[in-house]
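If you are new to this repository, start here. Below is one unmodified record pulled from the training split, so you can see the exact layout before writing a loader.
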Amino acid sequence: MDLTAVTGKVEGDAGVEHGARLIAFTDAVMGNDDDVLARERHAVRAVLSPEAFVDTCALIAAFNVVDRVADATGIPLDPMLYAVSGDIREELGLARFRSSANTPGAC
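And here is the target side for that same chain:
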């Protein structure tokens, strides 16, 4: 799996079955265009089982909630995680997100 797929720098499925479709659906869920969301929902349902579709929606929702809680509270990175995650934080460009300022020790 190529984690840089979340930055838009990777073409294709990034090593995950239906990866490009899942990323497009996630982007649509997080976006604000109902027409795009309807199109992507239809497209992802065409390639996933009903159970996998529900799991996908639950995962997107769970991550969104956890991320919002972390942003709101300013949960700091513990020193060990800060030390070992520098390369991946830089590779993914996480500091470019305004919310990174809410995570002490992350930037």
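Two things worth knowing about this chain: The longest helix spans residues 50-73. The two ends are 25 Å apart (CA to CA).
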